[in-house]
Amino acid sequence: MDVIVYESGTPGSGQSAGESRIFRHAHDDVRLAAFVRHSRALWREWEAEFGVELVSGAGAVAIGDSVEDKLRVLSGLPEIPVRLLAPAELAAALPILADFQGKAMFDAQGGAIRTRAAFRALAGTLEDALVADHVLTVRPAGRSVEVRTGTRVDRFDHAVLCAGRGTAALARGAGLDIPVEHAAHARVTFRVRDGASAPLPTFQDGSGVFGETGVYAAPSADNRRYAVGLSETTDVRQDGSLADPAALESLSARAAAYVRTALPGLDPEPDGYVHCWVTRLPWGDDGVGIWSAGSVSAVAGHNLFKQAPALGEALAETALSGVVPAVLRPESQLGKS
């Protein structure tokens, strides 16, 4: 097929901003874990095609009582190598972490997604197909679909909507109702003290031992910085404004306080920030789905970066066949908590 990609800004500057994302297999829904496993294989294919590392080989560490649930779900997928870590093994794998004697696990095929490298490779491949313009409306027009931008009116056989916070509004104009919930989020970057002798894994902390639960973190590509965020978000009003404009600063301050307690291997003085919008579906933080009708399809959900290759494959299949893969239909509630 011939493809046009509309992008109103620099590719990767919206909800995907920042140097890294976590690739992990652990999910509450075993179907999503299997889908992510397939996506990991596609990331490897992209690495071979583009000749660049896109997911680090340092693995993913998780701590807290929820580790047992994660391992139980993944036990149904024995081809994903995960294991418990003893305290000494945890200290060796993540030397920037304070002493922790609780439950810990290691996902050997997890790691940090090199987001900027991925966007450079993908945008470079699609350079001739990129149109720098904002889309106002997408609507069915007979047997085709009309796309109106700031300066163009184009028609296509099929349109795929993947516009982050703007997806639901564009989809509504095409007759698709996506029950997405908006919020805002902060992630703070800290410098690694004295450098790290080996590549650092990604990290999730659901233990509460260090004062917070729902913490996640990932290293930069040069291993000199570590981005730390809380899963907690701040509410957004109907008009898109923040209900409490000071809430992002509060989340950032809590991330810094967590670092002082839990990650003594980091300098607790913030070195950078990522503020972004979050789009969640009602059935869970990891919920994802594809809505499709006629000549328009749309994808929505949260924590989607690791799924990008597999979602792209599914969206292409939907555009060509007119049929959404069963597991990604909204009624399947993929990623349900």
TrEMBL record:
<keyword id="KW-0560">Oxidoreductase</keyword>
<feature type="domain" description="FAD dependent oxidoreductase">
    <location>
        <begin position="2"/>
        <end position="317"/>
    </location>
</feature>
<dbReference type="InterPro" id="IPR045170">
    <property type="entry name" value="MTOX"/>
</dbReference>
<dbReference type="Pfam" id="PF01266">
    <property type="entry name" value="DAO"/>
</dbReference>
<keyword id="KW-0274">FAD</keyword>
<dbReference type="InterPro" id="IPR006076">
    <property type="entry name" value="FAD-dep_OxRdtase"/>
</dbReference>
<protein>
    <recommendedName>
        <fullName>FAD dependent oxidoreductase domain-containing protein</fullName>
    </recommendedName>
</protein>
<keyword id="KW-0285">Flavoprotein</keyword>
<dbReference type="InterPro" id="IPR036188">
    <property type="entry name" value="FAD/NAD-bd_sf"/>
</dbReference>
